[in-house]
Every structure is written in structure tokens, then in C-alpha cells.
Amino acid sequence: MAEPNTLYVQMFGNFRMKYGEKPLTGEKIRDTYFTSLMQILLHNVPDGVSRDYLEDVLFKERDMENRHQALQTIIYKTKKKLQKMGIPGNDPIILKKGIYYWNPRIPVQEDAAEFDMIYEGAVSAQDEEEKLRLYLEACYLYKGEFLSTYTGVLWASAEARRYREMFCVCAEGAGEILYHRQDWVRMEELGRYAAKIAPFSDWECITMEALVGSGRYEDARRLYADTADYYLREQGISPSPHIMEIMERLGNQMKHSYQVIDKIQKNLTEDYQNIQGGYQCSYPVFQGIYQIISRMMERGGQSVYLMLCTLVDSKGNPMRKGERMEEMSERLGEAIRMSVRHGDIINQYGHGQYLVLLVNTTRENCDVIEMRINRNFIIGRQRTGVEYHVNSVVCDPVR
After folding, report:
1. How far is CA 103 from each of CA 84, 94, 95, 115, 331, rounded to the nearest angstrom?
2. Contact 118, 138 (CB under 8 A)
3. 29 CB-near residues (< 8 Å, 6+ apart)
4. What pLDDT, on a 0 to 100 scale, did the predictor assign at position 399?
5. Which of 212, 249, 274, 311 could form a disulfide with 352 if both were Cys (CB 3.0 to 4.6 A apart)?
6. Alpha carbon distance 335, 327 (integer Å)
7. Chain centroid offset of residue 62 CA
8. Do the Cβ atoms of 213 and 250 come closer than 8 Å?
9. Cβ(387)–Cβ(312) under 8 Å?
10. pLDDT in tens, 280-329
11. What's the pLDDT score for residue 137?
């Protein structure tokens, strides 16, 4: 429960302040000088901030005749705003020997300072149970990058990097202890939290280890497929070699209990009675299908084509990210699905891009499919279009 006379400050993720139970919001907090001053002062409560450094942070390289006077004006206005917000006293900010301090009469509880304290305790703890408790407490206190929307501010950027590294130490340390204890439930919870709070940092590996350790092999496979698809769609990259190495190692541990073949076949069969159009799948599944079809072509002599469909604007350039692109990309995916055959395979490769594997067709039929997609996608005088690239899939004979 919040203490009524304490200023609570959130630095991880979005910057927030509240006095007791009352959030400090509104137009006043959006003032650039006010916000910047409060952030650096409240992050340095014990030691304060020198006047010269504070001027460098607030004014950067701006050419000003009297920086001291400008800073005094900002301090004065900040005090008035804090009073209007309900902060008591006339001097929440005090100056001593060229250093500005937050007045100690107004207690401050900052999440980053609390994280520092817990981290130091975790690193120095000798008892494993105490170390694990503190590691986990620090991890769940970390709600995202330090001042995530102020990455252009040098001091904030340096602190964000420091806290990111500390979070990694805590997450890896907790994960290792939980793994040796075979505490799969808490390990999975930690992995999913870390992947959400610090995306594209390989934290899915912790979750995969937990899923395999608890025997949930299908969930681990699904997580790998979803992760690979997410990395490609959001960042245009494949998962790191570390994730792939972990998944390959875990894959060797996956065993299925004995089942009669009828039950196995039932689990493999797709219920597609009410599904129209092509088969839509994640990139790892698409890659596997591509590879097996390439092998089958050695014997069957089928003609298979790979088509890349890219959203382009009225000038023929790939569309940029945004709400409109997301909407158009979804529409293009539906147009492709309804334009290809039941046995063709579709993957959303990235933002505004789709891969289509056209099986047992001809180059001329690829042109027909392009026209069919355009008919299903382009409405009226719509200026957004689709750029197509088509390559023949050539089998790679076994040497």
C-alpha cells in the first residue's frame, strides 16, 4: 500500500510519478524541461546533480547568454508546478555548494533505485534460496527499458544499457537455479515474462528448456515455430543461432509415448472441411515443406514455383510500417489465400510480404494467379499494389 507522503517514481518503461495514491499527470508533466529535470534529480536523490551538469543535460549545445539564469528560471517554474500538483513545501528542490538536491523531507521511492539495491543483494547472497528470491524480485521489478521513450538523452541511454545488463544477469541466474531444481513452472513463467519485457533477446530459450523439462514437447515445438515467425515478421530476421542451437538440442530429447498408428494418424490429420484456399503456416513449417518438396521432385518431376508478393505504394516502393500497412497486409494475405489452390502453401514472410509455394503448376499459371490475386486485392481506384517475383524450385540431387 502506498504511503500518503511519499513520491513514487517509475523509471522502467514509461516515466510516471505519483504522490501517495495520486498520479501526477496532465499538461504540466509534458513540459520538456520539467520532465527532464525531475527525471535526473529523482534518479540521483542521494548525491544530487551539479549545476553545470544539469545545464548540459537541459540545454545541450544551445547557445545561451546566461545558462545559470535560465536554469534558475526552470527550477522556479518547476517548484510552482509541483506545488500545484500537491507536493508540499516551498523548496522540493534545494541548492547546496553548486549541487541541486531533491529535498529529503519529501521521501522518494524510485523503482530503479530499488532494483539497484535488490541486485546488489542478489549478487552478494551466499544462500541459494535467498539469491533466487532476490534474482526473481529484481526481474519482475524491471518493467521495461529505463526511460524507454527518452533513448536520445545520453545519461538515460547509458543507464538503460546498465540496467539491461543487470536484468540479463538476474534472468540468467534465476533461470539456471530453477533449471537445476527442475522448477519448470516458475522457469516457464520467468522465460515468458523476460521475452515480453525484453523482446528479441533470446529469452524464449528459458521457456523452451522449461517446456521440454516438463515433457510438454509439442508446446516447445509450437513456441519455436511462433518465435521464428515473430522474429521474421517483426524484425525481418531469423532467430539467433543460440535459439536454434538450443532448440536442436532440445529436439533430441523429445520422445513420444507409445501410441497405435490410428491415434497418431488422427493427431496428424488436418480438419480442413470448412477451410478454403491455400495452406497458411509459419516460416519454419514453410521451410520444411519447401525442403521436402525439393526432395520429392527428384522422383516425381513436378513443376513447383516460389512466389514472393510485396505490398508497394503508388510509386512502386515497398510500403512502410504503419496502421494502413497492417490493414493492407492483412487484406493481401486473404486475397492470396483465396486465389491459390488448396494444396499451395502460404507464409507471411515479413511486414507486407508473403511467400507462396505453388505446387505442380506452370510458369504461365503463375501469371494467372498473379492476376487473380490482383482482382481479389485491388478495389476501385486503390493506389496500393503488389509486386511479384517468381522463381522455379529446382531439386538439389543427393550427392
Report:
1. 17, 6, 9, 22, 57
2. yes
3. 17, 35
4. 37
5. 311
6. 12
7. 35
8. no
9. yes
10. 888 888 888 998 888 887 766 678 999 999 999 888 888 887 778 888 99
11. 98
Q: Is the dihedral of CA 43, 44, 50, 53 positive or negative?
A: negative
pLDDT tens readout for residues 174-183 = 999 999 999 9
Q: Do 110 and 9 meet the contact criterion of CB atoms below 8 Å apart?
A: yes
DSSP state of 360: S
- Quick count: other Cβ atoms within 10 Å of Cβ 354? 23
Fold of domain 275-392: Alpha-Beta Plaits (3.30.70)
Architecture field, domain 1-164:
Orthogonal Bundle (1.10)
Cβ proximity of 295 and 395 under 8 Å: yes
Q: How many other CB atoms sit within 10 Å of the CB of residue 393?
A: 17
Contact (Cβ atoms closer than 8 angstroms) between residue 94 and residue 49:
no
Residue 85's SS3 state is helix
What's the CA gap between 277 and 275, in Å, rounded? 7
DSSP assigned state of 277:
S
Q: Do you know the residue count of the chain?
A: 399
Judge whether 366 and 305 are in contact, CB under 8 Å: yes
Q: Which residue has the cell 509455394?
A: 357
Enter the C-alpha cell of residue 182. Answer: 527442475
Q: Show the cell assigned to 223.
A: 513456441
- CA angle, residues 44, 49, 52, in degrees to nearest 5: 155
- Sequence-distant (6+) residues with CB within 8 A of 322 are none
**β-strand partners of 356:** 307, 346
Instruction: Quote the cell numbers at residue 247.
Output: 532448440
* Cell numbers representing residue 66 in the block: 546566461
Q: Look-up: residue for cell 515480453?
A: 196
The strand pairing partners of 354, in sequence order, are 309, 348
d(CA 237, CA 123): 34
Q: Is 210 exposed, middle or buried (0-12, 13-18, 19+ CB in 10 A)?
A: buried
Q: In sequence order, which ranges of 198-301 are alpha helices (DSSP H)?
A: 204-213, 217-235, 241-251, 261-268, 283-300
Q: What DSSP letter does each residue of 313-339 carry, written as one string?
A: -TTSPBPPSSHHHHHHHHHHHHHHHHH
Domain layout of the chain by residue ranges: 1-164, 182-253, 275-392
State CA 78 to chain mean position distance.
Answer: 35
Sorting pLDDT into bands at 50, 70 and 90, what band is 215? confident
Among candidates 155, 113, 117, which has minimal Cα distance to 12? 113
